[in-house]
Design a protein that fits this description.
- With 292 residues, the protein is an alpha+beta fold.
- It is built from six helices and 18 strands.
- The strands form three sheets. The chain has an eight-stranded mixed sheet with strand order 2-3-4-1-15-18-17-16, covered by helices on one side. An eight-stranded mixed sheet has the order 6-7-8-5-11-14-13-12, covered by helices on one side. Strands 9-10 form a two-stranded antiparallel ribbon.
- A hairpin with a 3-residue loop joins β12 and β13.
- The longest helix is centred in the N-terminal third of the chain and has 14 residues.
Length: 292
């Protein structure tokens, strides 16, 4: 049994995802007009966009860098979680209308209802709504307690017909949203498990045929995921456009100190300032942990 002191806190949350972008104007227009995000902060280092004055995505100019190859490690998607189905439907409708060619698909995952897009520079986006936790099913496996998920058909037209309302369309940009989870492309799932579960302290919540791993804190279906669907065997990332940083928020400084100790014992370089902790995963995906 895992020592509770070696686990990340139950009330962990995901924070702002930084994307390194080649065309700031084009990317900003997409996140503002398609996803309905507002500019929260603008500095010489980039543009933060979000909802209700909470930054969700930060676009950092990185002219001169190349787009990553499909098989490289990095971002699979950033998942934005909506409070209700009508708010989700309003954003899905606007995003699809902005550029239907950037729509990837949809699925009922039993724990959630999700719609997938890519932004103009190929970064994956998931827009989703969580079903009530009371409806989630859990099973016991050799690897521990796992949540039951699937990818069932979820027709977008039917969903919009059932849940899109005039009020939701009118109030689209005022509706709340948070970064619900971040899904990465990695080189192998076993190494991902050793890092994100054994060292960082997430709990494994699901897997998929040795090709994907889902992890969380506090019994959520997943705060992070890693897969090898495009990237099996990938090594450390090059400096490219795409994912710049994943932010994880914890409620107390003690949690950062305990994590810093676990990283040090595992031989993983980290920088702990007291107010935040920075380190890279085995594929050079940069992770920052800070207070909520």
């Amino acid at each position: 049994m895992t020592n509770p002191q070696d686990l990340l806190p139950n009330d962990l949350s995901m924070g702002t995802v930084i994307l390194k972008v080649g065309d700031l104007a084009r990317m900003s227009e997409y996140y503002r007009r398609a996803l309905g995000l507002d500019v929260v902060e603008e500095t010489s280092e980039g543009l933060s966009l979000g909802r209700a004055n909470t930054p969700l995505i930060r676009l950092a100019p990185a002219t001169g860098l190349q787009l990553p190859a499909r098989g490289e490690a990095g971002l699979f998607h950033t998942a934005l979680l909506f409070d209700d189905r009508s708010a989700l439907a309003a954003t899905v409708a606007a995003t699809a209308q902005y550029d239907a060619g950037l729509y990837v698909g949809s699925a009922d995952h039993l724990v959630s209802e999700a719609f997938y897009f890519t932004d103009p520079e190929g970064n994956g986006i998931e827009l989703y709504f969580d079903k009530p936790r009371s409806t989630w099913q859990w099973s016991s496996e050799v690897t521990g307690r796992t949540v039951v998920m699937d990818s069932l058909r979820l027709p977008a037209d039917d969903y919009l017909r059932d849940h899109l309302t005039e009020d939701a369309v009118t109030g689209r940009t005022a509706a709340g949203a948070v970064v619900g989870h971040v899904h990465l492309q990695v080189g192998d799932v076993e190494t991902a498990g050793k890092f994100y579960v054994d060292t960082l302290g997430f709990e494994r919540t699901a897997g998929w045929r040795g090709q994907a791993l889902f992890v969380s804190a506090g019994g959520y279906h997943h705060h992070m995921a890693m897969n090898v669907w495009n990237s099996r065997g990938a090594g450390p990332r090059k400096d490219t456009l795409g994912l710049g940083e994943v932010l994880i928020r914890v409620p107390a400084e003690d949690h950062m100190g305990a994590l810093a100790d676990r990283l040090t014992v595992a031989g993983i370089n980290n920088h702990h300032t007291g107010s935040e902790l920075r380190f890279n995963d085995p594929w050079n995906n940069r992770i920052r942990v800070a207070m909520s």
